[in-house]
Predict the 3D structure of the following.
Amino acid sequence: MTIPQNIKQRLLWTGFGTAVATAVLMVWVDAPLALFFHGYRDTMWVEFFNIITNLANGAIWYTVAVIALAAAYIRHKVRASNPVALQRQFRAWLFMMVAMATSGIFVNALKLIVGRERPRFLFRDGVSEFHPFDLDLTDCSFPSGHAQSIWAAMLSLAFIYPPLRPLFFLVAVMVSASRVIIGAHYASDVAAGTYIAVAVVMLWRWWFERDGVSVALTRSELA
């Protein structure tokens, strides 16, 4: 089954736009912006974002999905509900976990291939360099794994329960911004990580919905 043309075109054009924006950020914005926020590293508002950034921990959202799966199974056993409803819930949460896992694997592979130093090397040495296949993963900055993680989780949740979509997007934006504000990543890292997450989630959503059944769940299905 081939990917629909409209999805291909959307991902192609947004990918092209992201690539151009990433190049512009790398050349003209990343270093000055990182140094600007570094000057506020000891302020309370940066400490606030130091807390917010922890929401990108993938373990949190995998746990949410696993608990939701377990709860759906227990409700089904207690209420003897329609097996189709249970299947829909299992598929929705599996969609979220698969999207997070595959986008995360892709980002980590790209990190090692690109080998871009994190901003802390800029703060220490005054330069930011690339060492493809040479750095430890913890030293690699591009793309942002935290941005990928939070966007994969929040966009998946936005498809699963649309009424809370504004809240999910707000969390994704704030956590993504926190990576730059606390000096963990450059802006271009966040842009690339975000695009990868969005592209992978969109592709998996299409695959899970290829039979015409949406991954979206109703309030009653989640209660």
